[in-house]
Specification:
Blueprint (H helix, E strand, L loop, with lengths): L2 E5 L14 E4 L3 E6 L21 E4 L16 E9 L7 E6 L5 E6 L2 E7 L5 E4 L7 E9 L19 H5 L13 E6 L2 E12 L6 E11 L5 E3 L1 E5 L5 E3 L3 E3 L4 E10 L7 E2 L2 E2 L2 E7 L2 E7 L4 E4 L2 E4 L2 E2 L2 E4 L14 H13 L4 E2 L8 H10 L2 E5 L7 H4 L2 H18 L5 E8 L6 H17 L4 E6 L21 E4 L4 H11 L5 E6 L9 H15 L5 E6 L5 E2 L10 E2 L12 H10 L2 E9 L2 E8 L12 E4 L2 E4 L8 E7 L5 E6 L5 E7 L1
Parallel strand pairs: 1-18, 26-33, 27-28, 28-29, 29-30, 30-31, 31-32, 32-33
Antiparallel strand pairs: 2-11, 3-4, 3-5, 5-10, 6-9, 6-11, 7-8, 7-10, 12-13, 13-18, 14-17, 15-16, 15-21, 19-20, 21-22, 23-24, 24-25, 34-35, 36-37, 37-40, 38-39, 38-41, 41-42
Helix pairs in contact: 2-3, 5-6, 8-9
Length: 657
């Protein structure tokens, strides 16, 4: 039985925190083998005595799909690791995987620890009882797909081509694709924390609620208290004494108020972060969070009470040689280019993203719509009880892992399914309720390919009736289709979750530029459009029918190696929140007009700078539609200018003549 306590605020002095959880990395050399005919278990590969030492050597994290020895292998594979035990005292030891794609089965010293399904979310096992001085860890991985995997193949549908129904939507990059570690914890430990900080935009203070999830794995009951301290604040919280029986779990909730003088709001242009340090007995957990308010009012998306309309992108997790591993150097390069392209309100991926990506978004300021993996599920799949439970499991893992990130403003419950069907409507209604049961502080949406169709005559005809804002994947005829959506939902914002044109769909890049400039003109005529996410930031490998002969689906603003196409440079200007115009120049000086867009994108600019011929000029705060002028010296007949966002991101460069 799980107990639950709601504890009132008691102010206490600052105290010394207890023992922290400790990580021991297992990222190193492992041995590896493919198992294409699935004989491993029958032959005892999982046993600690199995002679795996002569298998191939790999370094984990590892993506066997991009390893030249197993290039694009689909099927079962095995990883083996020998490691020494660690001194734990009375602590428990957990084996933690950040992600394994897609199905995994794990043994330690010949004992089956358990299984996991889902390729992008973390999971762990308690290995205290199995740990020895010398240990053999064996992981079986399967990256194959069928009609029961998420995502996967489709069950039979009259409107799907036979080859597409069987196809996987992107490369099924297999392996232990993110880090592996051992974690030591006290017998009574904090398994998770959830921090919700809601500002009062009138009074300036912020209500804070910290839910602490506690497990007692010890042999006896424990009586303890939960305490919390907030960085940059004098607020200290503690609970009443609680008793947790052996083998049980409980949730303790602390509530309080951060005074106005200690509140600095989190915003994409000012991403201020706080830290909550929570202690229970001998265990301490720390998590970062932001104080911000995101809400929908009518057709507006408000961040801290101010309407925002922003560009965005979709970023398939794919880089040459790394597949879906997403090392720091790739992540930093991509997100810097995305932020520098003013692509800040993004349905970033069709699947859960890494903690490193969300940490970057928190620290540098991005608004993220996180999505779990319902990619074009069929009505039959969406009505299947087992599939629903499987999706909810992956959705839960994503939400409970990411709910403290201020960059995450919404959850999407899928992409491009038959949302006009009764099964599709039931899916969105039920999954929205499930999300709210876990985290009611975020907005809910899904990416529809149906809502703008002519046969959708009223809101009840399609599942967007159940979401906070409508998301639509629109490829052409943007204005008419957006107007149709608005006629159905005149009081809801609309987010263009995908739009774009492939490089191999035109003769020249100029045609693609013209097509997408026209799309932006259409968006700017629709005051209810809050964002538009380009498909895609980067090209990506795929086996899906219609892929280019070189193996890529070439939608990207940048090439696979991230070299920018002309589209990226144009998009910096199109997604920039200002227009810049040279009014006149003479006698070695220029008069420049800077206007904050009032159509799309549009939001209040604070702390921006204009750099001209090497000299920086601070801009005044500009609300949408407001304008200012600068009179600046010229070096020659031209002015090389750059618009710089807070954080140092150059979001526009041009030459004024």
């Amino acid at each position: 039985m799980t107990g639950r306590f709601i504890c009132l605020l008691i102010c206490i002095p600052f105290f010394l925190f207890g023992q922290r959880q400790t990580d021991y990395s297992l990222n190193s050399e492992w041995v590896f083998a493919t198992d294409p005919v699935k004989v491993g278990e029958m032959q005892g590969w999982q046993e600690s005595s199995f002679p795996s030492a002569n298998f191939d050597k790999v370094t984990v994290p590892h993506c066997f799909s991009t390893d030249p020895r197993y290039f694009f292998y689909t099927g079962t594979a095995w990883y083996f690791k020998q490691f020494e035990g660690i001194a734990t005292g009375n602590d428990q030891v957990y084996l933690h995987f950040d992600a394994v794609f897609y199905k995994s089965k794990v043994w330690l010293n010949g004992v089956l620890l358990g299984t996991h399904e889902g390729g992008y979310t973390p999971f762990e096992f308690d290995i205290t009882a199995q740990l020895k001085s010398k240990n053999t860890l064996v992981v079986q991985v399967d990256n194959s797909w069928d009609t029961t995997t998420i995502p996967g193949a489709k069950t039979a549908m009259p409107f799907a081509q036979a080859n597409q129904a069987q196809g996987y939507p992107w490369i099924n990059y297999g392996g232990i694709t993110r880090k592996v570690s051992l974690i030591t914890r006290p017998a009574t430990y904090i398994s998770n924390t959830k921090v919700l900080a809601t500002p009062d935009l009138t009074k300036g203070n912020a209500a804070i609620r910290i839910k602490t999830f506690i497990q007692n794995r010890g042999a006896t009951s424990v009586t303890t208290k939960v305490s919390a301290a907030i960085s940059q604040s004098t607020l200290r919280l503690t609970s009443q004494a609680i008793t947790i029986p052996s083998g049980e779990a409980t949730v303790v909730e602390l509530t309080g108020t951060i005074p106005a003088k200690e509140v600095t709001l989190w915003h994409p242009d000012a991403p201020t972060l706080y830290k909550a340090v929570v202690t229970c007995g001998n265990d301490t957990a720390a998590t970062k969070f932001g104080i911000r308010k995101v809400e929908v009012k009518g057709t507006k998306l408000l961040v801290n009470g101010e309407p925002v309309k922003m560009g965005g992108c979709n970023r398939p997790l794919d880089f040459p040689g790394y597949g879906s591993m997403d090392p720091d150097m790739v992540l930093e390069k991509d997100l810097t280019m995305i932020k520098s392209g003013s692509m800040e309100l993004s349905r970033i991926s069709h699947y859960p993203v890494s903690a490193a990506l969300l940490d970057w978004a928190d620290e540098h300021g991005m608004l993220i719509i996180e999505e779990a993996g319902n990619w074009q599920m069929t009505p039959r799949q969406m009505s299947d009880t087992a599939m629903r439970r499987k999706f909810q499991s992956q959705l839960r893992e994503m939400i409970e892992h990411d709910w403290n990130h201020p960059s995450v403003i919404a959850y999407s419950v899928g992409n491009e399914f038959q949302s006009q069907s009764e099964e599709g409507k039931s899916w969105v209604r039920d999954m929205s309720a499930f999300v709210k049961s876990l985290d009611d502080s975020r907005l809910i949406t899904f990416a529809s390919m149906i809502v703008f169709r002519d046969f959708i005559k009223k809101p009840e005809d399609e599942a967007s009736q159940y979401v906070d804002f409508v998301s639509a994947n629109i490829y052409g005829d943007h204005l008419r289709l957006l107007q149709h959506i608005h006629s159905l939902y005149p009081d809801k914002p609309v987010y263009v979750s995908e739009f774009g044109l492939r490089t191999d769909g035109v003769k020249t890049e100029e045609e693609r530029v013209a097509y997408l400039r026209k799309a932006m003109q259409d968006f700017r005529q629709c005051d209810y459009v809050i964002g538009a996410s380009i498909w895609t930031f980067n090209d990506y490998f795929s086996r899906f029918p219609g892929t280019n002969k070189n193996g890529y689906r070439p939608w990207g603003l940048v090439a696979p190696d991230r070299s920018p196409r002309e589209m990226y440079r144009v998009w910096q200007e199109e997604f920039a929140p200002v227009t810049i115009e040279l009014l006149n120049s003479n006698a070695g000086r220029a008069n420049i007009s800077i206007t904050a867009r009032n159509d799309f994108p549009a939001y209040t600019l604070k702390g921006y700078r204009l750099k001209c011929n090497g000299i920086e000029y601070p801009l005044q705060t500009l609300r949408p539609g407001e304008r200012m002028q600068l009179d600046i010296p010229l070096a020659g007949a031209t002015a090389e200018i750059a618009l710089i966002k807070p954080g140092g991101f150059v979001i526009m460069q041009k030459t004024l003549k």
